[in-house]
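Margin note: ligand = guanosine-5'-diphosphate.
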Amino acid sequence: TMFDNLSDRLQKIFKNLRGQGKLTEENIQSALREVRMALLEADVHYKVAKDFVASIAERAIGQEVMQSLTPGQQVIKIVNEALTELMGGRAEPLRLIGKPPVCLMMVGLQGSGKTTTTAKLARKLVQEKRRPCLVPADVYRPAAIDQLVTLAGQLKLPVYASSVQQRPEEIAREALAYAKQQNCDTLLVDTAGRLHVDTELMAELGRLKEILEPNEILLVADAMTGQDAVQVAGKFHDMLGVTGVILTKLDGDARGGAALSIRSVTNCPIKFIGTGEKLDALEVFHPDRMSSRILGMGDVLSMIEKAQEAFDEKQAQELAQKFREDTFSLEDFRNQLKQIKKLGSLEQILGMLPGMGMLKELKKMQVDEKEFVRMEAIINSMTKGERKNADIINASRRRRIADGSGTSVQEVNRLLKSYNESRKMMRQMMGGGSAGKKKKGKV
Ligand code: GDP
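Resulting structure:
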């Protein structure tokens, strides 16, 4: 996925630092040179990369080496904080307070994913117990109107059925009245897109803004276009006053530069990210989680949030508790497998799991529906005791389990390895700094 290369590069840099006894100006400078190269290669704006490295240097050099951290860990900590800040520090929620219907105006270039994102956002609002109404206002492309009407149908949401004969301003006025009449509290307007930023379009959007008085003007930008997305965001912001950016296609293999640069270049916060074509593939953008994802620490929080959507909250909390206390058993693992199907795309879920090692391992296994069935069969062939305590599963038990499930010992081994790795990494993540009671004495 998007940040794989950058993650790999940074992890290598940190690994080299790990061998050093303490942080000196020299070893930090050489590490930072490499960090800067890695950022540039990830298509981060050159000025952003330069400022970023300078701010890290300032924080790192001369800092007392903390007893509990190795130099590598210490730099990771500093880089993590700086990356988080670079992306805006904290999640920026939508501003939805106001006299209903509050309006969200969606703007962006053609092909950026604007229409899809409008529907995704409506779906999210429904989950938050709001009642959105959708409005297609791209009168230059009948297909765009049809697309949004179809998506609204899938979501069973009211849609103001505009026609290409109408002027956008007229659509805006009538849609406002329609939303009121339908008792909708939120109006999502999908505006026209062009291939390039042009003044005519900007003028039209400006007139719509006056009529709609939107709470938010959300720019939808394609992360795959890298620095172009940053430029486009800047132009829209200058001419229209963008209140938030939604960065799409972060599931693709672009290098991530846009996500890292947009905030500091344009001063517009990224509010959501699109991570797939399906309507559930929209996530609140959390700078801190994105940063730990980039640094290869995984994104446990996002995963738990996703899990909460699919499971109920109580279950998710129990799960978090189990990871924390290290009582996550193979039985829990099996339940996870069963329910993971509900979570949508598997790739998406795997992308959030901590530890690239495990990710690659699972990818090699080419996890698909059939693989799930096999993994479930393996766990089913275990005894209750084995599921509770995987440590007792010795060679002869592995043989028996393989025979019982019609699989091979290698497959049993692989499953146990995945289970153990995820357990270990989740525990580290959940434990946070103190890593539970046992280790406290060491710090
Ligand atoms: P618009 O012209 O800006 O309205 O763009 P569309 O909503 O029609 O989307 C253009 C294409 O991008 C479609 O094929 C969408 O399925 C795809 N798309 C939108 N968002 C995402 C995303 O987050 N990830 C991926 N992989 N594809 C997306």
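The mean pLDDT is 83.
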